[in-house]
Write a structure and sequence with these properties.
The chain is built from five helices and 17 strands.
Length: 277
């Protein structure tokens, strides 16, 4: 019996989405095994993550199960949330363009805009070290030593942990992410590992970003990483409250009015294909 799946992407961050009834046809041991097999780019469909809508929630309009390509769970994913929002609205799993989603990071509120882009209220950035979690108490402008380098970065959680590093103009983002991302991801300072962002400031309203994602490696985009990066820039007084984030797979816009306020992520969500496996 075939399993119906949908492949979607947000700025190149790609996901396999399937309904729960389709998931049950696979007879996998659990959703983690399903993610490992479906997200495999050689023996499966290929994706950065697996998303399964959860219709059984009491306090929100809908929920989701989200798994990284390595089978691990993720508390949140900004690009995944945009794709999820478009999918559940188009497939009439919700009947309104602005709704609430239950995630492991709490309740997230996406909104489908008139131009087709998706705006997501990503809630408030988490800055308390014990909640990120980040073992040192000084989470901003922390110096971490890996291999032959010392990087100064900012530990921030967007429901999932991030370490945000602004680099010099003459350094290569992708090279740094590949060479140092795995080391920082698993550093002792991060008891639950971390996503790692390397950023170049183009102007006070524009940055360029490359990310090493926890559980995925190099990806073309990271929505929570874009939010954490802009938050770090604002907290350090080097970015405006509205910033265009240039990612390898496209652009998103992040707006934040500072501590105590919710942060908003806006960007595209696109279908790649629908299939039966």
């Amino acid at each position: 019996m075939g399993i119906k799946i949908t492949k979607m992407q947000g700025c190149g961050n790609d996901f396999v989405i399937l309904d729960y009834e389709e998931y049950k046809k696979g007879k996998w041991t659990d959703m983690s095994e399903a993610a490992l097999k479906l997200c495999d780019r050689h023996f499966g469909i290929g994706a950065d993550g697996l998303i399964i809508p959860n219709l059984n929630t009491d306090d929100t309009d809908i929920g989701w199960f989200f798994y990284n390509s390595d089978g691990s769970t993720a508390q949140m994913c900004g690009n995944g949330m945009r794709c999820f929002a478009k999918y559940v609205y188009d497939n009439k799993l919700v009947d309104k363009k602005e709704f609430t989603v239950k995630t492991l990071a709490g309740i997230i509120a996406p909104k489908i805009l008139e131009d087709g882009q998706i705006q997501v209220n990503m809630s408030k950035p988490v800055l308390e070290s014990d909640k990120i979690p980040f073992i040192p108490q000084n989470n901003l402008n922390y110096k971490i030593s890996v291999k032959d380098r010392i990087f100064e970065g900012n530990a921030i959680s967007m429901g999932n942990p991030h370490f945000v590093i602004f680099i010099k103009d003459d350094e290569d983002l992708l090279s740094l992410a590949k060479n140092y991302g795995p080391e920082i991801e698993t550093a002792a300072e991060f008891p639950e590992k971390t996503n790692v962002e390397f950023i170049k400031k183009i102007s006070s309203s524009q940055i360029e970003l490359c990310v090493w994602e926890r559980g995925c490696g190099i990806t073309l985009a990271c929505g929570t990483g874009a939010c954490a990066s802009v938050a770090a820039g604002i907290l350090n007084g080097i970015l405006d409250n509205s910033v265009v984030v240039k990612l390898p797979g496209g652009e998103v816009k992040v707006k934040w009015q500072g501590e105590g306020n919710d942060i908003f992520l806006t960007g595209p969500a696109k279908y790649v294909f629908k299939a039966e496996i």
